[in-house]
């Protein structure tokens, strides 16, 4: 098959992850002879193994056909749908997927039989007469295979393809792609991160965890960042969590039991070595005067806010704030018993600290207020007199959810000008981005992680952004990264500031980490680590 013949007369077939309806009659469907390709085929750089693939590429009348499974079609930027009345619809969409190999232990025969289905077909909204096509859609292994002539591959879907006798056939669809990260197979079993050009991951041997880093473009060059031995007497907890704070990379892990154990917080230096900065149950924030420490150890106690000067020891920290308050806890009282939940809302703005506080000893009716503390003057001022579940400082404003109605409110930093924002009780998350306010609300009590994403509409009822249930939301490089709940068709959706979907990924992640222009995620299916490069997003 020469290059000229392929470029101008060859039809490529992209299969549709869509099985035929059981109600569809096979009586009038003729059978045709198909064969496996005897040349190399790559889909967006992924080598297709046809000998042991459940849905192999096929050749019919010297034309290459590609199976449109759910993942194959999304890999190539195509959306598909089927109905008994309308038949099959194929359209170019803002979708993507990592490559799915569909491996099987059974070797495919060199030649086989496929069917020519007779249902209605539309391509980008235009009807196609399959019976009259010289290269009709085919059905093989209960999956639709679709022949793409130049008018379909190039004109309708905007694809590029190349052929050479040495390299075979290469198809590139142009939609945003995922990229497999070449880390050790066990890297996805723990936390992963990407920071300033390096991947960070963990390898576990027995009860020893070793944190490594590798350059983005040289993953074979592994450098030890930190190592520690876990305490197996309480059951070894191998989990390591990475996050960025004040433009620095941190990670934490737990040692010991739930009460007598402690969390360990490590900071990674510029040379790629990590050091232990804090131990215990606590929260900490950097200020211009040093590190603010919020003691969240058990049993809880008041006067638990201290300031450790730069270079000083935690034991030498000086207490700040009203000593009659307990800070950094969300406190509940139920039939005479007190409940405490660690709160991480504490925020430093300039020289001031905003923190949740309650009287200590506990007094019903005065719990979970927002206070502003000036550490230098050691002045403590109540800002919001209502009980809140938590708060954030965003865009120079104070946002908080009240306990009495679980609605989202906004005020000035001094607590004045309070405005109700949400129409629905807020659950799990809220944020402000590009002047727009978003939040998640529970459906059916939030059972099974059924949280819906809403956009605040100041002129009426808040608008539902999408039907999919979301588990988490992050902002990265001009997009809102939504990790969808289990059961959704897609696993990740990228939204713009108006709440419109820019790209949907079929992959379902177990965790997502964002860094500048890149999304790093771990596949929930096989724990492999993959990345999405946002600089390649069309129409940025």
Automatic annotation (TrEMBL):
InterPro entries assigned to the protein according to its UniProt record, in alphabetical order: LRP1-like_beta_prop (IPR032485)
Keyword Signal: yes
Segment forming the signal sequence: 1-27
Domain Prolow-density lipoprotein receptor-related protein 1-like beta-propeller: 368-468
Keyword annotations from UniProtKB, A to Z: Signal
Pfam families: DUF5050
Top-level taxon in the UniProt lineage: Bacteria
Protein name: Prolow-density lipoprotein receptor-related protein 1-like beta-propeller domain-containing protein
Record organism: Paenibacillus konkukensis
Lineage: Bacteria, Bacillati, Bacillota, Bacilli, Bacillales
């Amino acid at each position: 098959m020469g290059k000229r013949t392929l470029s101008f007369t060859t039809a490529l077939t992209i299969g549709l992850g869509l099985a035929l309806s059981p109600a569809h009659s096979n009586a009038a469907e003729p059978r045709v002879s198909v064969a496996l390709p005897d040349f190399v085929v790559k889909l967006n750089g992924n080598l297709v193994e046809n000998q042991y693939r459940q849905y192999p590429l096929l050749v019919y009348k010297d034309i290459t056909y590609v199976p449109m499974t759910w993942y194959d079609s999304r890999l190539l930027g195509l959306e598909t749908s089927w109905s008994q009345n309308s038949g099959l619809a194929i359209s170019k969409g803002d979708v993507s997927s990592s490559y799915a190999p569909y491996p099987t232990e059974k070797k495919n025969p060199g030649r086989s039989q496929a069917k020519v289905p007779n249902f209605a077909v539309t391509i980008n909204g235009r009807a196609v007469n399959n019976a009259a096509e010289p290269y009709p859609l085919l059905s093989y292994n209960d999956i639709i295979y679709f022949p793409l002539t130049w008018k379909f591959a190039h004109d309708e879907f905007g694809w590029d393809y190349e052929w050479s006798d040495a390299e075979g056939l290469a198809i590139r669809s142009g939609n945003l792609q995922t990229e497999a990260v070449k880390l050790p197979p066990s890297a996805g079993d723990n936390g992963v991160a990407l920071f300033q050009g390096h991947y960070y991951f963990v390898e576990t041997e027995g009860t020893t965890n070793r944190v490594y880093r590798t350059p983005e473009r040289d993953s074979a060059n592994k450098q030890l960042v930190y190592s520690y031995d876990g305490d197996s007497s309480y059951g070894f907890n191998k989990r390591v969590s990475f996050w960025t704070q004040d433009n620095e990379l941190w990670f934490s892990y737990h040692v010991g039991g739930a009460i007598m154990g402690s969390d360990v917080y490590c900071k990674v230096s510029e040379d790629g070595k990590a050091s232990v900065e804090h131990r215990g149950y606590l929260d900490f924030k950097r200020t211009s005067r040093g590190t603010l420490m919020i003691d969240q150890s058990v049993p809880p106690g008041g006067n638990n806010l201290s300031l450790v000067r730069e270079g000083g020891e935690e034991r030498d920290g000086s207490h700040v704030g009203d000593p009659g308050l307990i800070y950094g806890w969300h406190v509940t009282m139920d039939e005479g018993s007190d409940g405490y939940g660690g709160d991480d809302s504490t925020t430093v703005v300039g020289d001031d600290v905003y923190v949740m506080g309650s009287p200590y000893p506990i007094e019903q009716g005065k719990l979970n207020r927002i206070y502003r503390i000036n550490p230098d003057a050691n002045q403590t001022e109540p800002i919001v007199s209502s009980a809140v579940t938590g708060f954030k400082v965003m865009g120079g404003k104070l946002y908080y959810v009240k306990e009495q109605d679980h609605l989202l409110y906004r005020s000035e930093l001094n607590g004045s000008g309070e405005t109700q924002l949400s129409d629905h009780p807020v659950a799990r998350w809220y944020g402000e981005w590009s002047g727009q306010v978003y939040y998640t609300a529970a459906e059916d009590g939030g059972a099974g992680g059924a949280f819906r994403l809403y956009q605040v509409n100041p002129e009426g009822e808040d608008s539902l952004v999408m039907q999919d249930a979301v588990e988490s939301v992050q902002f990265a490089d001009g997009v809102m990264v939504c990790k969808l709940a289990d059961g959704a068709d897609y696993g990740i959706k990228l939204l713009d500031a108006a709440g419109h979907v820019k790209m949907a990924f079929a992959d379902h992640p177990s965790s997502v980490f964002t860094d500048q222009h890149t999304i790093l995620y771990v596949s929930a299916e096989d724990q492999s680590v993959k990345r999405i490069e946002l600089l390649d997003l069309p129409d940025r």
